[in-house]
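Fold this complex.
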Amino acid sequence: MNPAVHLDGITKRFPGVVANDDVDLAVERGSVHALLGENGAGKTTLMNVLYGLYQPTEGTVRLDGEPRSFDSPRDAIDAGVGMIHQHFMLVDPMTVWENVVLGNEPKTWGGLRVDGEAAREAVVELSERYGFDVDPDATIADISVGEQQRVEILKALYRGADVLIMDEPTAVLTPQEVDELYGVFDELTEQGKTIIFISHKLGEALSAADDITVLRDGVNVGTVAAADVTREELAEMMVGREVLMEPATSPQEAGDRVLEVTDLDVEDDRGVEAVSDLSFELRGGEILGVAGVDGNGQSQLVEAITGLREAASGDVRYRGESMVGKTRRDRIDRGMAFIPEDRQERGLVMSYDLVENGILGSQHDPPFANGGRLDWNASRDHAESVIEQYDVRPPDAEAEAESLSGGNQQKFIVGREFERDPELVVATHPTRGVDIGSTEFLHDRLLELRAEGKAILLVSSKLDEVQGLSDRLAVMHEGEFTGIVDPATVTEEEIGLLMAGESLDDDSVEGAAIHDAAGDGTDDAPGGGSDGADDASGNGIDGATGGGEGVDA
Amino acid sequence: MRNPLSPASLLEGASESSYVRSLVVGTVGVLAVLGVLGLAFPESLAGDLAGIVFSTSTATSTARLAAPIVLAGLGGIFAEKSGVINIGLEGLLIISAFASVYAASIVGVGNAVLGVPALALAFLAGIAASTFLAAVFAVVCIEFKADQIIAGLAVWLIALGLAPFMSTVFFGGVNTPNLGARVGWQYSATMVVLATLGSWWLLNRTAFGKHLRAAGENPKALDTVGVSVSKVRYAGVLLSGVLSGVGGSALALSIGQFVGAGETMVQGKGFIAIVAYLFGNYNPVGTLGAGALFAGLDAVQIRLQQLGYAVPDTLVQTIPYVVVIVVLALVGRTQIPEAAGEHYETEE
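Structure:
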């Protein structure tokens, strides 16, 4: 029998870059296939070829043995290939059924009226067949991210998709929602659908996929059955060398109290309370991890601490001094480093080169400021040293920030902030979009700072990252810490419960303590995990620069 | 399913915003109090005011004045829902007002071309002129990604200069001579009501309406399901041209003349139209209500002047703007489409 999808010798070249080099990929009908690789490995490019967004330079796309050629995603949809993007393509104020049928509305009255009843029935029928629990009349803005993802799947199914491509499907989900998604995979494959998902999380590929194909630098390194491969072997295939799977943390005495947050209330832009009555403290030589589904007040908490947002009430004390009313510059001067979550918005000025970006935040201070003028030679030396130490590519201080790939932008920001010689580092998603090798390096640098007695607040949606690095792990839900747990003993399920807003009773905390195979399920290589916004730039439809992924390689 | 044309579902979208309800209740309340006072004290100011508000002549002039406001407002909804903010409505009204009068004078009132009477041709000419200008605006904004606000202002300023200039060229003065024939208020009222209901249906019940909304809220979502965002946006902007063209022609033809002096006979009605649809929260029915209210205030003010009350007309004309500022400040957000004003480009 012919495979449902057969990519035969696909080569895709962009000017100056080979994103895919003679890649073969065969996916059996009714199976789940993971496409694993680091950022820039060419996964997304390959899927964009299958989805009709790119035409391959060489090679053939075959569906059920038939050679096909797609000029646009529309052709791919008509041929039964559906794509579920990492950033959902849903219209928030519209209902579930309106979104599902968008562009293919059933009509009555000679096209003058959308047949809402027929559309609703179709949605209900599809949901029942695949065991989804989705209310067709709910508004997208009101339903959870997991449900929104199911709406995206329904959209593809409604259009007759037989092959579903999912780009980083677990990036925005809680662990429980991830389990539900795997359940959905089972339902779909039982009914003969074929699923290909893009991932750079080893654990995810191992637990959800039947077969795994690893791409590295645009080349197919190999296809293996998930049952026959270990995590370490996969990591080695991805990176091309042996990878240290666990960051080497060593116990360390906490030092002086560096940050003390008391009864902090912070509102978001709409005036809704995003952080409520939060208190915690952070000592030197300690990493406090903050886990949680994005959008539960982490951003507002970080902004209140770093001075980008005024707290509604409560106090932030930094090395004994109240920060209320202190400006961002005051806080930088006192040694607070900040790695923002949106690097293009807040981390860099995209049209500046790296020399200029390298002194952002230090532009008032010597050696860069010199009697009201900027010392460009000192600035250039500084930028070059960051570039060299943090392996920013291309190593060109004159390059504009926007010409760098997301991962390299991130490395530059992290380098700039770490080299500030801070007392407190507030790091949000520090390795988002960074490949495994560089992630390993950034994690080591974080641990070095910790060893030097610096205090680190680490906010990340990568569970394995916060769990692996933190001394204490706080889980945030709707503006509150639902628990501060010991990352060494807590289980993934327990974190999932906390992320969903439930508290752990005493029994389960004890349970956590004796659970010695902690985090078995998610504890994948550093560098697994969501890579949110930046990956968009390589995602074809959704990206600003087509082929960004390729350039990243 | 609910009756699609029931009053409740007509206010769908707007009904959840309590201010629309308070607007209706408030207006009815003020009118009721005024009626009672007028009956009780017929000799007082209240008596005069009641006499004016409830007179037929006020009603008919409200209908005439409301036509350009409501029609341009409906057009503005289509453009903005699709993601293109069209603040050039004023210019579209001006150019269509002139073009309609010009066409009627060329054909000659009472004559007909191919059986189409001159006044109907005048409407077609007005619509054509307005739609042409809207098309230019659309190309500049969608194709060349110009700033929508600046392009919209340009549309207004071009029309503001061009219409009186052409009037001077063809008629020897910024004001055209009177045609000696006018379109009755009944026609304006009918067009307004039909356009409102039609727009409501188009926006809320057709596939095009859904696409329009998606184009303004999340264009990528529309693009990925294979509907061209540009086409939908062009359609939205061109519809604003068509509707404004009807409105501008109705305004000029209801008097039988184009007045090009100063800010022309349109006198900011295109801007009030924007206020009207914001006030109506992008709902055609709400826009009709708001447009009728603003036009009614204007009509009452004109009548009061005629009765010898020294009403400062310029001040009365600021009422819609003051109202919208108050409403926006008190209510906060209206349902401005998420991607309104943003350019969209397919990335392939």
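The CA atoms of residues 238 and 251 of chain B lie 20 Å apart.
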